[in-house]
Amino acid sequence: MKAQKGNFCHALQQLKDEHVKLRADMDNFYDIAEEIDFETGHEVVQLFARLHEKMSAFTDKLKAHSRREDEGLFPIMARHLGEHDKTIEVMEFEHEKAEKHLQDFLIEAENRGANIDEIDAQTITVYAVQAYATLTQHFAKEETVLFPMAETILSDDEKKELEKLFQA
After folding, report:
1. CATH number of 8-167: 1.20.120.520, 3.30.9.10, 3.30.530.20, 2.60.40.10?
2. In this predicted model, what pLDDT tens digit does every residue of 145-163 receive, in sequence order?
């Protein structure tokens, strides 16, 4: 299966393109997190409400993306890499780490609810910043290491299989 734009097959290019959209969302929520850090008083609580909305929507989009990797790409790659290669294990760990930061944010925000104050909002926002940092590094690693490796080692049939999985 011939590589398309970016020298990746369609399925891998789809994952990379999803990173672009996810990064735009991440930049958006990170900007709000920075504003929360610099503001005071009621403005912080209002910004936090916006951040919570953005983080909820982002988490749903990220879950769909991660599912394609966790259930599609990673198992196929693991068959090629063997038990001594830790590439997929590291990628899965990073998924779990990012998901934990996102869940911690959402759970803490829900627990505080409408009674949230400035200090709680600023404290909980740290989870959003941690998710941003984790995912920024993770996406870079996938794009510079994992996707090129997959393009090289996956057979044409496996690339077609991934493409079908992603369309389902």
Report:
1. 1.20.120.520
2. 999 999 999 999 999 999 9
